[in-house]
Write a structure and sequence with these properties.
3 strands; Ribosomal_bL17; structural constituent of ribosome; 116 residues; 50s Ribosomal Protein L17, Chain: A; three-stranded antiparallel beta sheet; Ribosomal_bL17_CS; ribosomal protein; alpha+beta
Length: 116
C-alpha cells in the first residue's frame, strides 16, 4: 500500500530520478513550458515550486541553494533575475498543469506544465 508515501518513484533509481527532475526543471525554466507525462509533471511541480520559493529571497545564499539543485548557471541566472521577481506577491501556485493527449506507443497521459 502507498498510504502516506511522500513521492513518486517514476520507475527509476534515486539518482536517476534526481537527474530527471533536475533536467526537467532546467527545461521548464529555460522554455517556461514543456510537455511531459502527467506523473512527471506532478512531481516536477513540487520540485520547481520549492526552487522558486527559495529564489524569491533573492540573496546570495538563495542563489547558491538554487544552483546546488540545478547545477546550471544560465538556468539559475534566469530563475533568480527574471522568473522569481514575477512571483514576489504570489504565495505558491507558480505552475499550471494542462492535460493534453495520450502518447502513441505506450498510451501514457501527457500534459503541459508551464509557469503561470
Amino acid at each position: 500500500m502507498r498510504h502516506r508515501h511522500g513521492y513518486r518513484k517514476l520507475s527509476r533509481t534515486s539518482s536517476h530520478r534526481k537527474a530527471l527532475l533536475k533536467n526537467l526543471a532546467i527545461a521548464l525554466i529555460m522554455n517556461e513550458r514543456i510537455e511531459t507525462t502527467v506523473a512527471k509533471a506532478k512531481t516536477l511541480r513540487s520540485y520547481i515550486e520549492k526552487l522558486i520559493t527559495k529564489a524569491k529571497k533573492g540573496d546570495f545564499n538563495a542563489h547558491r541553494e538554487v544552483f546546488a539543485y540545478l547545477q546550471d548557471k544560465e538556468a539559475t541566472k534566469k530563475l533568480m533575475n527574471e522568473i522569481a521577481p514575477k512571483y514576489n506577491e504570489r504565495n505558491g501556485g507558480y505552475t499550471r498543469i494542462i492535460r493534453t493527449r495520450t502518447r502513441r506507443g505506450d498510451a501514457a497521459p501527457m500534459a503541459f506544465i508551464e509557469l503561470v
